[in-house]
Amino acid sequence: MDCNCVSDLLLTPPVPTLWTPGIAFPDWAYKPESSPGSRQIQLWHFILELLQKEEYQGVIAWQGDYGEFVIKDPDEVARLWGIRKCKPHMNYDKLSRALRYYYNKRILHKTKGKRFTYKFNFSKVVLVNYPLLDMANSPFLLAQNHFNGGAATPDCSPVTPEALQSLFPRLPESGRGPSLFERSAGAPGPDGDKLRLDTFPFLGSGAPCYSKPPSLLGPYPRNPSFDYPWGFNPYLPGAFSLNNCPKLPPGSLYSSHFYPNPLHSSLSQLPHPFSSLLPPGDTTGAERGQTGGTNGQPPRLCIPPYPGSVPLGRTELGNGGTGVGDRERGETNTGVTGGGLGLGLGLGLGLGGLSVGSGGGGRQSPSERRKGVKQDPESDSELEITDLSDCSSENENEPDFSLGKEPGLGGRSHLLEAKSRALGGVLPPLSSLPPPVSPHPLKSLVPLTPPPSSLPPSLSPSPSMVDRHRETEKLKLAHS
DNA sequence: ACCGGAAGGA
DNA sequence: TCCTTCCGGT
């Protein structure tokens, strides 16, 4: 048979490197060794792997918004998946069924109107693992939620690379690792498995790092009120550059080198406590402005080692449900790429002009020949926001939720304080801010790291931020 | 093409 | 639990 079951076709090399907590995955997404017989690769892992393999660019590739990818050759992807799973009769119909299965889990959602195009959804993953970045409570962000008519629920607010980078200035990175998953040395077992944040170019930095450099990566090319309804407006100071998006070198499956993360360096640049969050070596590297050791490469960012990896039993991925609005609609081509209402990251750095098979020597896949992959047939801005329904309370009752057991919000407050401090530079005048919002549904997600004793353990996040911001504003006024 | 229900397997 | 397989429907 042709079922080699090549386990290493795209397998992750279990090479532990500098541990970067990255993203804590829901347990349903990645079962640990402690669950015997359940370590089979999951489809979305496989998809991610393919997406990072340059040689599969003709088969599947990032395209469009962050997290959005297009299956250029459905049959080939299905075939590869079939090989991987020893299912010789796999086809795209079955594969797509499996992908649809992810809708409810909010791992994926369909990009409407774009054939064979799906989108990963990672916002909550980021929120959970980086409460620092939990901007859902940020009045700053909510202040701009009028874009979507206030329909956004706090914990569904996306954390975008842009947002991160607008919060923190960019710095070179120092650490990296080759593996998609890294096992936390300090958190072995079920919770030790983390997906590298830098696995996801759309989370890594402002630069999407598509294998093929997007041709229309202008940072702020479009109408913010239309493209950034989730509250984040990249038209902010301290923005990110969208340069430096080298191709993923062949053979380098999970090179974080190419999927930099802004947090790492950002933290290293921040005053205490953020700078202390970085391991000594990293901080040094970041301070030196290391490019990651590769000559000629642009500066890289990497993941901030988050103290006390967040061992979530389950992390609800932002959103993206299926539902009515997800059905394919007709063609409503706006001429501009779908602006990123994709819930997942909800950002609007449309890569719209990025053509799939064109330029960069992209070859045309069979499916393109067959049907032709529509390019930006519509703006996703309008209906791609889907299913906010369960963004609110389910985490509260999450059985696997270990975080909530952590005492107090000290750790969170700790981070929030620093975050707030960091936000000071980019926050709009306080007068423009809406009142603090109610506690985040993910409020129980606190870092495991015990809070510093110097900080009040029960600081309320939102008021804290507002206060901080108010202080910052005062200082700024005083300075001026 | 895409959807989701249903049943079943590992 | 995560698909795989099948299928009727849109």
CATH superfamily of the domain at 34-133: Winged helix-like DNA-binding domain superfamily/Winged helix DNA-binding domain
**Strand content of the residues, in percent?**
under 5%
Outline: globular
* SSE arrangement, N to C: EHEEHHEEHHHEEHHHHHHH
The CATH architecture name of the domain at 34-133 reads Orthogonal Bundle
Number of helices: 13
Kindly report how far apart the N and C termini lie.
Answer: 75 Å
Low-pLDDT regions: 7-38, 124-467
Could you report the average pLDDT, rounded to the nearest whole number?
45
The number of E-state strands comes to 7
The quaternary structure here is single chain
Q: Largest sheet, if any?
A: 4 strands, antiparallel
Helix residue percentage: 10-25%
Explain what the structure shows.
This protein has 480 residues and is mainly α. The chain has a domain at 34-133: Arc Repressor Mutant, subunit A (Orthogonal Bundle), CATH 1.10.10.10. The chain has helices at residues 43-52, 74-84, 92-105, 123-129, 139-142, 161-167, 201-204, 224-227, 262-269, 280-288, 366-370, 410-423, 461-479; strands at 23-24, 60-62, 68-71, 108-110, 117-120, 181-183, 193-195. The strands form two sheets. A four-stranded antiparallel β-sheet has the order 2-3-5-4. Strand 2 and strand 3 form a beta hairpin. The longest helix has 19 residues, at 461-479. The protein starts with 22 loop residues before the first strand and ends with a helix. The structure holds a DNA duplex (10 and 10 nucleotides).
